Amino acid sequence: MARLNVLLLAIVIACALGVVTSQHKARKLFVELQKEKDRAQQMDVEWGQLQLEQGSLAMPARVENLASRQLQMQMPQSGQIRYIRIGSGAAAQP
Amino acid sequence: MNYATATIQTSGQIALPAWRSRVLFVLLMTGLVVLLGRAVYLQGIHNDFLQQEGDARYGRVVEIHAHRGMITDRHGEPLAVSTPVESVWASPGDVEISSTQISQLAQIIGMNPAEVKSKLATSREFVYLKRQLPPEQAAKVVKLGIPGISLQREYRRYYPGGEVTAHLIGFTDVDDNGQEGIELALQGQLGGKAGSQQVIKDRRGFIVEDVASLRAPKAGVDVALSIDSKIQSLAFREIRQAVERNKAKGGSIVVLDAKTGEVLALANWPSYNSNNRDKPGMAVLRNHAVTDQFEPGSTMKPFTIATALEAGKIKPNTVIDTSGGVFTVNGRTIHDTHPERFLTVAQIIQKSSNVGTAKIALSLPPETLWHGLSEDGFGSLTGSEFPGEAEGKLRDYRKWRPIEQATMSYGNGISVNLLQLARAYTVFANNGELKPITLLKQETPALGVKVYSDATAQAVRDMMETVVRPGGTAPLAQITGYRVAGKTGTAHKLENGKYVNRYVASFVGMAPASNPRLIVAVMVNEPGGRDYYGGLVAAPVFSNVMGAALRMLSVPNDAPLDNVLQAPGEVVGEEV
Question: Which stretches make up the Penicillin-binding protein transpeptidase domain (chain B) (predicted)?
Fold first, then answer.
């Protein structure tokens, strides 16, 4: 009887220690998870900022300005446009 | 114990009275029971108190921010995006700061040191030093390491389009709630609902355990508008140039997809930069194209003619006696700038004859005319759901006097907003079907209401094509490679119930006329230069925007490329 009690006591203590360690591990993992979540949010934020930056760099007014000022491009005059009709095989004369 | 008894026994002294050990035993046991009872009481029966104390030390409720939805154009280009910024706040009681630190801090947050000092001098627990600082600057504030000064994450809305889309998109306030424009109209969809979560935090402030989710956060939904940002930018640039060139008070432009009723562009000048926190006055903030009503003038005529055609009163080639450009009703005289003895119905549209239109209108019962105009959407909202949209004014036909019926037929005594006017022209672009207006991208075109027969719509469109030919009021609206149908308008402004010699010049048109794809409506308010006719002020804007937009959308040509004809003399002015 006494030996059984000692055995049970040992098992109880082992379980208790097990609970403590697993709780500790769970908390550590949880902290890890939080960090990853924060990182995900950070990336989300960065994504938003990049989108915004792309949006402002690609504004039609800016692109047009660069094309005409820096690259000396211009809108084609009506005579310079040639329309190609699919199926007819030959370029339509303007 | 054994030892003690043994000593007593061996020494032969009398044993201590048995009650002493019993008393001791009872006392110890009582103590134990009391302790046990207290433990059970605290942990089992009455545990709220300890729970509360524990929660107060480690348990925290954290807010989970919900993102405000993004607004994009129809191709997914961002027009409004929320990104986080940091707000610097202080609890003045805890702040320990040296004067050099004050000037450093002031420099980072862009304030002068005296201002910072006065903010810190309050007795409040919490004071914002600077709201919405970019993350890089916020990092510098943290580096200063001043006790009592902390950051708070907030979200700020950015508008890459700035002044180009300002009136349309509107803006949000500092707490991310929509205040104007689309931001206000779609607040319910865009605005997220912040959630909250109960957690356990350790000494260093890290969350170590999720206890319970009190409220799940609900992120705002992204919204795709019907706007095409390229056409928007083009329309904005052109209306701005036109307003500046004509020294006008302002101008508005609307581009519609003729088939679906989607708004592809909507712009006003003067505009403002919606990214600035300091907003201009209400006059500049208003989206004039939607919230203002004006008397449209001759752009109204096609609807009068169409109603008469539909009623079978006239045919396109019916000759109307325009009595030399003078016509008196109720003692008031209606004039034409270019008096003619006789004009066909088509010529009445081409030359924009007030007398002709008035005579046709008076041949109709008031109810028929009212019904026709009302069915075209005048006097009712367009369905755009834009906040503060003006309804326009179409008076009850039972109160019309003949002179009113006559002037209304050419757009005086009736008021519209520009979006409403553009929408009404969908009846001519869609074989008589009036489309509802939408600012949101549609997957399937909305169903319209049939107002006129195919034949009537086609006939009026043919007449409106003559407007841009030499001899019409708007040859400047011609576009290389495309047939154009449209109508000019020039109206006196109404101030305190009196017409004054200031004007609203407008042009509404559609192209390609063989199968209209786009409708462009242009309105220029009080042109201050030499020209004030719609055909001279608004028509060139139409031509530039429509031509470029059609090319952007690769709409096939429906005319040879040498179709633009020069008017022989001056552009035909219209009576206003």
Answer: 251-546
